[in-house]
């Protein structure tokens, strides 16, 4: 199983900032991650992809860091992990957007891939509003990132993942607009995603 970027970042923090407690912190992180894995032993493959890549290691890191730093600092630390990855992804997408005309296909790509990667089997629920004519617009009404953070008593952690979307997709191309005014993780009743091209 490939180790999540969040696990790697946590281990780096433990090594650099808390060398005298590194082994204890890594052990606590692994214990918490193992508990979360046991709680989701029956999860679908699609849901497990999200759980393993971000949700469970994010929660495990956040909870473990709170044993050596204030809660607010622990949240900022995990947010930094997620933010750093979002900027790396954005650089890749910005390079892709240099391909002539590719920006026009982005809303259609979102419309095609969202049900596959963020569908019911992965723990998401959404209402499609428009997915044609250069516009992809949906309302996400259920999200496993939000559900799991709430279940584990850390709803504030979900903000990190909401922010990463905005970092990654906003400003990719002058004629490609990313819009979102609400998210479940920020206390709203849905995430109103929109990606559209402009003439």
Radius of gyration over C-alpha positions, nearest whole angstrom: 18 Å
Number of helices: 7
In helices, the fraction of residues equals: 55-70%
Outline, from the CA principal axes? Answer: globular
Structure description:
With 199 residues, the chain is an alpha+beta fold. It contains seven helices and four strands, in the order H-H-H-H-H-E-E-H-H-E-E. The protein has a four-stranded antiparallel beta sheet. It starts with a helix and ends with a strand.
Short description:
It contains seven helices and four strands. The chain has about 200 residues and is an alpha+beta fold.
Helices, strands, pairings?
Blueprint: H1 5-17, H2 22-39, H3 45-65, H4 71-96, H5 106-117, E1 125-130, E2 135-142, H6 144-151, H7 158-169, E3 176-179, E4 191-197
Antiparallel strand pairs: 1-2, 2-4, 3-4
Helix pairs in contact: 1-2, 1-3, 1-4, 2-3, 3-4, 3-6, 4-7
Keywords:
199 residues; alpha+beta; four-stranded antiparallel sheet; 7 helices; 13% strand
């Amino acid at each position: 199983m490939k180790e999540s970027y969040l696990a790697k970042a946590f281990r780096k923090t433990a090594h650099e900032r808390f060398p005298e407690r590194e082994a204890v912190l890594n052990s606590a992180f692994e214990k918490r991650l193992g508990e979360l894995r046991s709680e989701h032993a029956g999860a679908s493959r699609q849901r497990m992809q999200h759980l393993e890549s971000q949700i469970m290691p994010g929660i495990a890191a956040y909870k473990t860091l709170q044993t050596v730093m204030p809660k607010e600092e622990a949240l900022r630390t995990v947010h930094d992990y997620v933010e750093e990855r979002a900027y790396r992804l954005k650089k890749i997408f910005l390079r892709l957007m240099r391909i002539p005309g590719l920006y026009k296909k982005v809303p259609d790509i979102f419309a095609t891939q969202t049900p596959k990667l963020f569908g019911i089997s992965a723990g998401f629920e959404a209402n499609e509003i428009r997915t044609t004519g250069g516009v992809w617009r949906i309302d996400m009404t259920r999200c496993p990132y939000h559900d799991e953070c709430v279940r584990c008593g850390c709803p504030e952690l979900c903000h990190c993942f909401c922010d990463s979307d905005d970092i990654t997709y906003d400003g990719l191309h002058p004629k490609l607009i990313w819009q979102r005014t609400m998210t479940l993780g920020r206390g709203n009743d849905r995430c109103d995603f929109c990606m559209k091209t402009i003439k």
